[in-house]
Amino acid sequence: MSAQPEVYPALYPGGLVEVALDALPGAFATVTETPLRRRLVSQLRLFIGHLQQLGVRGDIWVDGSFATQKPDPQDIDVALAIGLPALAAMADANKQRLEYLMNEEGRAYARTKWNVDFYVFHATDFAARQYWFDLFSRNPDSSNPKGIPFVKLT
Prior knowledge:
With 154 residues, this protein is α/β, with parallel strands linked by helices. The protein has 6 helices and 5 strands; from the N terminus they run βααββαααβαβ. Strands 1-5-2-3-4 form a 5-stranded mixed sheet, sandwiched between helices. It is globular, with a radius of gyration of 15 Å. It starts with 14 loop residues before the first strand and ends with a strand.
């Protein structure tokens, strides 16, 4: 019989919950404050800063054990909901940099540099949006729904 993974309470109740960029430390490192959580918050800010430098506009959804009260999550799961007009407005070189972060090599780079598992979906693709919403709002026990904190990039 295999051991069930420990399930931690969600930081937020079900649904999408907007978090301001300057409120990240309070949003993710207050309830369960550990050195690792503080470091992960810093890395998330740096990752978001990188996306902003690329001119990315959209919503950064945050998940994984980082969105729970687990004291020492290993990484941060992030999904970018980006609209087609926002993508079209980006400079070609920056689109290529974003596309790099979406491929296997780029995802490995993001994991190593920022401890972020990075995914992207089109904000207007209802099926993709529902897939990520369902995935990110579920705790492993399936009976403890999680809220999905997100940061709006404008």
